[in-house]
Amino acid sequence: MTGSEVFEVRFHAGGANWPANPFRFRGQGQLVIEPDFVLVRGSSHRSFRFPERQEHRLRKVDIVNIRRDGGDLLFDVIGVKDTVTIGCSTADAEVAKRMAALLPERQTEEFAVAHAEREQFHDRIDYWSPSTPVTWALLALNIGIFLLMWWQRHEHASMAAQVLGMMDWKNNAASMMRSLQLEAWGANVGQRTLSGEWWRLFTSMFLHGGVLHLLFNMLVLYQAGQLAERIFGSLRFTGLYLIAGLCGSLASVLWNPHVNSVGASGALFGIVGGLLAFIRREHSGVPPTVVRDLQGSLLPFLMFNIGAGFLYPHTDNAAHLGGLLGGWLAGHLLARSLHVPQAAA
After folding, report:
1. Residues 87 and 30 grouped into a single domain
2. Confidence label for 176 from pLDDT (cuts 50, 70 and 90)
3. Residue 204 covered by a domain
């Protein structure tokens, strides 16, 4: 075809971190960009049927709102009844840039405003907090402590098996050993905390009962922590994290004096509470588009996890709610304005 360029792309079913498409394309496909049309080729996946190869022909005059995110490319197609978004992943950011240059530059008014506000927000947090050292330090601390505890359990289990001659000793006693070890390392054990060992309110924030517990909490810390640190600043973020974590631990032990609780989840719920408090403040410097974006992601996270906490046993919802409230209050106290001084704008 004269004047056309063919790009190999990958389509996704969609999700939090992947661009979706309305054709149910998944896997390898192509975008063919012609002078007046764009051909979208891929395999459509349907329930209980074999994938079907399809091709959709789009008019360039209907394509608007081109945007890139690394190697991902997305654009909107205006239809008679509604507007759909088509997204795909390319080999790298340079390929996505080349593709975007061949597509129309038109933007809808609503998209232009939202895009400008998001760019303004990122410029502001880049100005105030370009890096997130505290979040990375917390990740390293939590993971490092977990690995040290694993190594200690492994060594003790091997020694006990040799002395006692029980080859399956580790499997039978793993749960008991983990519980005793957590208590020794500073778990929030109600009777001991209320008897004067108040330092357990702090140390329990950095202990985790298992790999899945650690992975989930560290994923939330990696995602929400970096944003919160850039919004609050490293020093204020440290205060937010500690205040929320301590409030979560205190709520846990007051709600259930017989608790044996560990984990960073109280502090993490506090980060979410702090973010919600920050973005709702007047003159915060967070544009309306970003406020809506954050509310749309943070509120479902809270509702799902608090709801799940009531359904699944061994979930310390008191710590979650205490951390959330403590983080919300700390968010108001520690908030700053993100507006950039005129001299630096």
Report:
1. yes
2. confident
3. yes
- Nearest Cα neighbor of 89 from 11, 5, 31 is 11
- Write down the pLDDT at residue 223: 94
SS3 content of the chain, % helix, strand, coil (to 5): 55, 15, 25
Buried b (16+ CB within 10 A) or exposed e, 19-51: bbbebbbbeebebbbeeebbbbbbbbbeeeeee
Instruction: Find out whether 139 and 222 touch, Cβ atoms under 8 Å.
Output: yes
| pLDDT over threshold 70, residue 119 | yes
Count the domains in the chain.
Answer: 2
CB distance 11 to 21 below 8 Å: yes
Q: Are residues 80 and 139 in the same domain?
A: no
91, 107, 123: which is the final residue of a domain?
A: 107
pLDDT (mean) for 113-139: 96
Residue 120 lies in a domain: no
HSE of 98, CA atoms in CB hemisphere, 13 A: 14
pLDDT for residue 271 is more than 60: yes
Q: Which residues are catalytic?
A: 265, 320
Question: Do 274 and 328 fall within a single domain?
Answer: yes
Q: What is the mean pLDDT of residues 164-169?
A: 50
Q: Report the distance separating Cα 211 and Cα 60, nearest Å.
A: 49
Quote the pLDDT of residue 61. 96
Tokens at 299, concatenated: 């509120």
Residue 289 pLDDT level (bands cut at 50, 70, 90) = very high
Cα–Cα distance between 211 and 224 in angstroms, integer? 20
Distances (CA, A) of 235 to 133, 143, 231: 10, 22, 11
Same domain, 166 and 97: no
Give the range of the structural domain holding residue 184, as residue numbers without chain letter.
133-334
Place of tokens 């008014």: 109
Strands 63-69 and 72-78: antiparallel
